[in-house]
Each structure stands twice: as structure tokens, then as C-alpha cells.
Amino acid sequence: MLWRAVERGTWTDDDRLLIGDISNQVGITIEQFAHHEHVLKISRTDALTGLLNRGAFMDGLHRSLSRLQRDKGMAVLMYVDLDNFKHVNDSRGHQAGDDVLVEVCNILLQHTRPTDMVARLGGDEFACWLTGADLAIARTRASQFLTRIGALAGKSGSADRPLGMSIGIAAWNHNSQETLDALLARGDHAMYEAKRGGKNNFAIASDPVPA
């Protein structure tokens, strides 16, 4: 926006030319900024679901743990791996598989808070980071996820291989002094415990080993 005092008179032709040149430069700058924001966004998000990708999620975890350590907070990591998803792709095609992944994205977002981090780590692996949550909250979230995935039974590859979720839950507390790598390993191990226990269920990781 430009203005001038009334006593200075109206804009001259030279003024208009100068303003036109400035507006062109401003327009180019805004376009470059928008392009940079777009590139940054697509570098941090999953193209199919719009969720954070693995790199952005890990970066967010690093920053979140540092903040929680300073503020003496707590959080919960939830690893989510789909059961029998490959059979959907093999039986119904990859478009059907993509549709399932988008549905799963919606389930996770609808049962987490805007302040939580939700990511697609790759393939049919997802993760949620619930800041300020405890195991009771995580159990509730996991139960909600499992209830909702049950409604997608009709999208399974076959009736004898129903879609499901295996969820690993690992709680983090600043008192444990646990590293990010150790936390991730506990969550991953719990997820495989859920799979070994019959799939479409959740398992709670054991407490971290003291340093």
C-alpha cells in the first residue's frame, strides 16, 4: 500500500512508472517465497497422505524430546503397522491399497490432537507422537484406531486375511534419560509383539533399561 499527503499533489507519470517497477519486484519476491514454502512442504510431507514423512517426523521427535527434557514433560510413541496390507495390493491393485492408506491417515488424524505428530514412515508404517500423554491415553487411542480399522474389513484383500493394525506403544518420561534411538527400538519391538500375539492388537513396551 502506498499513500502520499494531499499537499504533495497527485501521482505523476514518473511516479507511476517507479511504482510499477517496484510492484513487479515485490511480485517476483512473493512468488519465490511461495515456491520456497511449497518445496519445503513437499520435502517434509508424504505425497499420498499429506502426513509428515519419516525425516520430518524424526526431526520433530528430536526437537520435542529436547523441549520435554527441559520442561520435565512426558509423551508416548505409537508405532502403527498394517496387517495383511500387501494382500490388498496383490488382490485388488495398488489404487485400492492407496485408498486404504488414505483411510488410515484419516483414522489417525481424527483420533489425535492437532498438537500431536502423525507420520507415514513408509509403506504401511505409521507413527504418532502424543505429547503430554500417558499410557492410559495411549491405550484409549489404540482402541479407537482398532475399532475404526475394523470398519474397513470390506476393503481387505480377502475375508481370511482381514485388514488390521498392530500397534506398539512406548511411553517416554524425562526421568528415564532415554535416548531417541532407545525409545524407537522399544516402540518397534512392542509393535512386533502385537503382531506375534495375533495381529490387530496393541502391545505396551517394557520400561526402558536404566542408563
Description:
The protein is an alpha+beta fold. It is built from six helices and five strands; from the N terminus they run H-H-E-H-H-E-E-H-E-H-E. It has two domains: 39 residues; 151 residues, 2-Layer Sandwich (Alpha-Beta Plaits). A five-stranded mixed beta sheet has the order 2-3-1-4-5, sandwiched between helices.
In the CATH hierarchy, the architecture of the largest domain is 2-Layer Sandwich
Biggest sheet, strands in spatial order? 2-3-1-4-5
User: What's the SSE pattern?
Assistant: HHEHHEEHEHE
- Uncertain runs are none
How large is the radius of gyration?
24 Å
CATH level 4 superfamily of the largest domain:
Reverse transcriptase/Diguanylate cyclase domain
User: Quick check: average pLDDT?
Assistant: 88
